Amino acid sequence: MYEPFISQYLDKHRYEAIRLKAVLFDMDGVLFDSMKNHATAWHEAMKRYGMSMTREEAYMHEGRTGASTINIVSLRERGHEATEAEIKEIYHTKSEIFTALAKPERMEGAYELLLKVKQAGLIPMVVTGSGQKSLLDKLNHYFPDIFRPELMVTAFDVKYGKPNPEPYLMALKKADVRANEALVVENAPLGVRAGVAAGIFTVALNTGPLPDDALLSEGANLLFPSMPAFNEAWEQLYSELG
Ligand code: MG
Description:
Number of helices: 11
Helix content: 40-55%
Number of strands: 5
CATH architecture of the largest domain: 3-Layer(aba) Sandwich
Strand order of the largest sheet: 2-1-3-4-5
CATH topology of the largest domain: Rossmann fold
Largest sheet: 5 strands, parallel
Number of domains: 2
Bound molecules: magnesium ion
């Protein structure tokens, strides 16, 4: 089903030199089916501080650091940015609401894909704007023996976060690979923008409510409607990417 689409993109001269060594996975909405809960938590937390943020807006901001999201909404809703203390408090509230919601599930097809990536001798990495302290435990619990802690990029590592290419450039550096030796897997428009800006072939998975164009207009090189669809197309994509 995706064959002509893949070939059409890979024929492009600029991707002829891809020599895949690492696959850089975003976390929320890619490895975990967690975006619904994040959107609800953002919406509820902002409401508690007298600010309006729809669930859909949460999807549009997905990938940003918490501080950046809070400042954008605060500026719009109150005419000024939030103080350091407010950012801390609002983000804490958002995290509490998120934690109280039912635990998000592993994204269907994600573990199968990660096993294939690893078995192919490629380096699987997580590149996330999330800053939960228990991140690594959670990843190890749901995806045992897949990720190496020293190769993770989280909110604790970056200064700017997505949509800046910084997190993906940092991932390349940590894995000691070049842009043409990596592949980004993202579900968020700003995450796609970051991957593309880092010069990396970027696969978008549309696992949320936004239209495909929200991802394609950011420069996604390929789009799949779900993780299972990507998992199904993996062998072919990998053989074409080389
Ligand atoms: Mg995401």
